[in-house]
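S.,

Sequence below, as promised.
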Amino acid sequence: MSGINCLIASSGPYGAAAAPLSCDIELIGGAGPWNVSGSAGDLYSQFAKGIFVSTSGGTPPYGGPGQSLNGDASGKLSLVPTGDGLHNTIGWSGFSLNELEGCYLQFDVTDSLGATASARYPSAGSIIIKRTS
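The prediction came back faster than expected:
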């Protein structure tokens, strides 16, 4: 069997429906509390922790708004790149000593047929970041 025939044979029955679109988002290492140092920084620089997202099912290509950080009333938390060109992490700026901030992560995706999926991390509550030094 040639490589092309092998690919066609393994792709499933003609006309088979794609699995429903789904997605996931998580902060590697958990929701904390994260005790951080400095008035500005990020979880990747201090703990090598990044945000992982995945998408499955539906009909590629995928698009949509993507990742967002929500629930931060102070505006001191943000999504920042980790530097690996693949992932984001949570950054902070303007933190006072013993300041405590919280947020949650949202991932929204749309497939090429218009199906949508959303994920929240954590599923309830907040990611907690506290400046301790």
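The domain at 19-131 is CATH 2.60.40 (Immunoglobulin-like).

Coffee later?
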